[in-house]
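Standup, Tuesday
Yesterday: got the pipeline producing structure tokens again.
Today: sanity-check two examples.
Blockers: none.

Example 1:
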Amino acid sequence: MSSDTTEIIETDAGPARITWHQAKKARLVLAVSHGAGGGIEARDLKALATVLPAHGVTVARVEQPWRVAGKKLAPAPKTLDVGWRGIWPALAGPGLPVVSGGRSAGARVACRTAAELGAHAVLALSFPLHPPGKPEKSRAGELLGSGVPTLVVQGGNDPFGKPEEFPAGSYELVEVPYGDHGFAVPKRAEISQDEAVALITDAVVEWTGSLG
């Protein structure tokens, strides 16, 4: 993998940061942002940045303006969408199809803005189908409304929505057995943490390879 480069992008929500992980012969850009309480050092985002460039996918890990500003909590969804719109021209800059993605709150942003921004597809990691313990507050509409090919990667034990809670739809869903919202698996699980992460990267490699 070539050396990582970072750039600051001015958006209407403040400066955002992109860390680029370039593929030698890229055919896609996969842009992924973080959740509402974490950053781009999340295990799944780091793993994708390490693995995918060897498969012709340049990975752009995106830090929303609130993270760049050093704040602890994410702003309202509308503000997150503003930040994502602001970095899109930089993501599309290489002239390749852009897969819009993210984990948790970042997955919601990707779904909400995909059609408007012309995303090639959506990668939704740990999609927060509902707040923990409140299945009646479903966000399924955002997922079902992405309007583009969508892959959901969901922990089998995610309190924000277990795989079996997801509604029928035209998206694909890959389960990470025993995984929680951060894809952590307990020590007693039948798969190791490394195997859980490999499940994620293998699924995304296969899926991005299938995108026309």
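Example 2:
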Amino acid sequence: MKATEVPAIDGAYLFEPTPYADERGFFCRTFDADVVRSVGLDSDAFVQDSVSRSVRGVLRGLHLRSGAGESKLVRCSYGRIFDVVVDLRTDSPTYRNRAFFELSGETQVTLYIPAGCAHGFQALTETADTSYRIDRPHDPAEDVTIAFDDPELAIPWPLPATSMSQRDREAPSLAEVLKQREK
């Protein structure tokens, strides 16, 4: 497994496994504490694993946590997703940068998203399972959502959004969220 910095988002990394394939399929390590530590992250900080299943066109996000934020490792374990990260850390050299990735069950690449970054994704296949490893227990009172179609972000979602939660549909603009955070 190797770790690669994401230039557009300070502190973000891609963890690329080395799959072992044969006639049965493949096997690969999807988490390696030594590799995580090698880039300065605390491998023991992750306290919760979750998974979501989405159908083609489903859009989830853009989400982030208020307060101390939340760091996460995100991997598409089955299917393919279009993944988006927006840096909203005002003290970051990549503040307001966006980065886009295609994550897939074929590659099992894991994306590390630092606390303070918004995250969202869209399922590109009929079924897409997305796994998360999060460094804080979830507190719904800290949930923040930003409009997926905010013109200021101009995210090039590859498909029309076929389904999303009410919270995501009614999310405020980035400008509104940033104004609220200043209070």
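Quick observation on example 2: The chain is about 10% helix and 40% strand. The longest helix spans residues 174-182.
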